[in-house]
Specification:
Layout: E1 2-15, E2 18-33, H1 40-52, H2 62-65, E3 69-73, H3 95-112, E4 116-118, E5 125-140
Parallel strand pairs: 2-3, 3-4
Antiparallel strand pairs: 1-2, 1-5
Helix pairs in contact: 1-3
Length: 143
């Protein structure tokens, strides 16, 4: 599993002009990619890391301050552009496999105590954010 985590002051996801997810920060915007090997172990590890990483100001975590988290599915995090001009997406899990994993990460964050907003899985989304810092971290599970 791969997560790109950004510290934000706010973030909004729109689908067809409708707001489907929004947070006011400080908080975290998480782009989440799922690969074929991801399962419950990677779900638990990734959610815990997102919630506990000290990415907010004064070395605080989202769990320390109850910061909101907006999670957006993004299979393109597993794009491979090493050859040619067209990326391949072979390492990304297909929607029927990745959607339940994405949902499980969101559910685990909620279980941990996070206020979670979500994008819409598989939709053509417009994401707007006001980055804080900026702070961006790429997090890979062992899966």
């Amino acid at each position: 599993m791969r997560a790109v985590i950004q510290r934000v002051l706010s973030a909004t996801v729109r689908v067809d002009g409708e707001v489907v997810g929004h947070i006011d920060g400080p908080g975290l915007l998480v782009y989440l990619g799922v690969t074929l090997d991801d399962g419950p172990t990677e779900v638990a590890w990734t959610a815990r890391k997102i919630w506990d990483l000290r990415l907010l100001r004064d070395e605080r975590s989202a769990s320390d301050v109850g910061a909101p988290v907006l999670v957006v599915s993004q299979f393109t995090l597993y794009g491979d552009a090493r050859k040619g001009r067209r990326p391949t997406w072979q390492a990304a899990a297909p929607g029927p496999v990745s959607e339940p994993v994405y949902d499980a990460v969101c559910a685990e964050l909620v279980r941990l105590g996070a206020q979670v907003a979500e994008g819409r899985f598989g939709a053509d989304m417009r994401v707007e954010s006001v980055n804080d810092g900026p702070i961006t971290l790429v997090l890979d599970s062992d899966g």
